Amino acid sequence: MTTVQGMAEEDRRLVAVWAADCAERVLPLFEREAPDDDRARDAIARTRAFARGELTAAGEIRRRFVAGRAAQAATAPAGAAAARAAAQAAGVAHMGAHAFGAAAYAASAVELAHPDDSDARAGEVHWQLAHLSPEAAAALRRLPPLGADTAGPLGPGLLATGTLGAVIRELQAALS
């Protein structure tokens, strides 16, 4: 990878496991709305296969948008956020910083699914941090702070704003 947000392939494989775990945890929110749409589940399975070394980054780069398009099949914001978490997890094969996107969309999905629970998002972020391997945490620590590097997912785009940005900033603060 030519950008610090890309990570070495070994590190991308490490953080792919965590990204898949985050996305899989909220997958039922999408599948309740689109039970016949397997794009998000497939993206998570492919992320896990990439993490195991069974798929190459080159082969996955083109496929990372499939789960993102699945978000259109969701009827509620929580389901759409869950599909986007799967898409971000799939994006880790291309650029490791997408792991933070997977976690942020997953936390957002939980918050949207539980609007009356003011602690829902914080609980999800706590779970995410507790399930992060030391090796993956070390790889994520090497990423630039959100908004500091424009060449990737942690640039000044969608992931840097609103709930997504707040979650990523919280994760990065906890890891520092």
Task: Tell me what the structure shows.
The chain is mostly helical. The chain is built from nine helices and no strands. The chain starts with 8 loop residues before the first helix and ends with a helix. The model has no long low-confidence stretch (mean pLDDT 93).
Key structural traits:
single chain; 176 residues
Largest sheet: none
Protein structure class: mainly alpha
Q: Beta-strand level of the residues, as a percent range?
A: under 5%
Roughly what is the average pLDDT, rounded to an integer? Answer: 93
Distance between the termini: 23 Å
Helix content estimate: 55-70%
Kindly provide the radius of gyration, computed on alpha-carbon positions and rounded to a whole number of angstroms.
14 Å
Strand tally:
0
Any chance you could write out the topology, listing elements then pairs?
Elements: H1 9-31, H2 39-51, H3 57-61, H4 65-70, H5 77-91, H6 98-113, H7 120-130, H8 134-141, H9 162-175
